[in-house]
């Protein structure tokens, strides 16, 4: 009897110590150096502002170009019309990513607004939805380029192209819902008397791990395999065609039609866009996939840096894609130059005179 009473008293004292330790622990918000936060947030904001301005200009120029095409022949169902649809959809998803997703990730570094699991899920949904839609847009573009090169006479109808673009956006919303059950506020012990809460995927349950791996596989691995295959086939086709006509280079350049030249230029531009998608998201997918599967023990600072660095590379895709479009689209560069020249001419015609001083 005395031994049992001693065991019960020892258990009571241990439980009271654990409860007191939990109660006395202080909550610390994002215990990472402010210099690290400033460097990451500054880089994100610079890419975000550039992506916001560049994609807005792309949509504005394409809208003006579409309004000027009032002739029925110019609005025919051609590859050029399909290219415009896909570029507009891609620029819109990148614009919304720079306008909504990236500012939320940056604000989360400095403002403690994620107070429960539902806010965490909504926040991560808004972080993921537009990059996922961008991935699906690039997948559609890659498949369309494949048919443009190997089946040039098969052209999608205008209404089918619109349905495909709308389907990419709806499918992006549905696919983004797959990993949302895995995200919640995760308790992370910093020191003996402090802890923090982070909005992160929960890798403790096998179901959550399966959902997250399925999301990575459907939204990144499978599209990357398809796009790499398409790019390799197109590169092999172009290289074989160059080798075949190398002895007759002058004849080739003289007999190449404008439609063939335009088709290869557009294909080259979209291939760069596809590479700009695969490389930036690689770090995010590899890191989160390994953490979800292997479940290693990582310090809070290392995990914080890895997550936000991979997020930075992923969100930079919107700015990189806009830069590629401006570099390869002569019409966009011409319109941008005309707009800048008009602004310069107006400033020269109407200079700012200093205000007259009263006598």
Commentary on this structure:
The protein contains eleven helices and three strands. The chain has 359 residues and is mainly alpha-helical. It has a single domain, classed as Up-down Bundle (Rhopdopsin 7-helix transmembrane proteins), CATH 1.20.1070.10. Strands 1-3-2 form a three-stranded mixed beta sheet. Helix 3 runs parallel beside helix 5 and helix 8 packs antiparallel against helix 10. The C terminus is likely disordered. One of its GO terms (molecular function) is G protein-coupled receptor activity. It is found in: Membrane. Belongs to the G-protein coupled receptor 1 family. InterPro entries: GPCR_opsins, GPCR_Rhodpsn, GPCR_Rhodpsn_7TM.
């Amino acid at each position: 009897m005395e031994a049992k009473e001693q065991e019960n008293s020892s258990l009571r004292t241990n439980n009271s110590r654990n409860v007191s330790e939990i109660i006395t622990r202080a909550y610390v918000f994002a215990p990472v150096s402010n210099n690290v936060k400033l460097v990451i947030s500054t880089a994100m904001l610079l890419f975000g502002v550039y992506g916001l301005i560049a994609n807005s200009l792309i949509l504005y120029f394409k809208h003006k170009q579409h309004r000027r095409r009032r002739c029925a022949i110019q609005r025919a169902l051609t590859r050029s019309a399909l290219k415009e649809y896909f570029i507009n959809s891609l620029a819109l998803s990148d614009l919304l990513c720079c306008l909504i997703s990236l500012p939320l990730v940056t604000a989360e570094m400095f403002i403690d607004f994620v107070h429960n699991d539902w806010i965490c899920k909504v926040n991560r949904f808004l972080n993921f939805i537009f990059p996922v839609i961008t991935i699906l847009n690039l997948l559609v573009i890659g498949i369309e380029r494949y048919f443009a090169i190997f089946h040039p006479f098969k052209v999608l109808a205008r209404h089918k192209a619109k349905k495909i673009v709308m389907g990419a956006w709806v499918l992006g919303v549905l696919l983004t819902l797959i990993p949302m059950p895995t995200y919640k506020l995760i308790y992370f012990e910093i020191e003996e008397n402090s802890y923090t809460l982070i909005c992160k995927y929960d890798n403790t349950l096998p179901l959550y791990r399966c959902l997250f791996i399925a999301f990575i596989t459907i939204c990144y691995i499978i599209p990357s395999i398809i796009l790499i295959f398409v790019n390799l086939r197109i590169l092999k086709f172009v290289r074989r065609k160059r080798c075949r006509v190398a002895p007759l280079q002058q004849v080739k350049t003289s007999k190449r039609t404008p439609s063939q030249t335009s088709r290869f230029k557009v294909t080259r531009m979209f291939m760069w866009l596809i590479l700009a998608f695969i490389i930036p998201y690689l770090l995010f997918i590899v890191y989160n996939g390994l953490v979800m599967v292997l479940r290693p023990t990582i310090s809070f600072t290392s995990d914080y840096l890895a997550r936000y660095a991979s997020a930075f590379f992923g969100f930079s895709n919107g700015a990189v894609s806009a830069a590629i479009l401006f570099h390869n689209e002569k019409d966009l560069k011409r319109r941008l130059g005309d707009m800048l020249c008009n602004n310069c001419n107006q400033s020269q015609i109407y200079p700012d005179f200093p205000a007259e001083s009263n006598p």
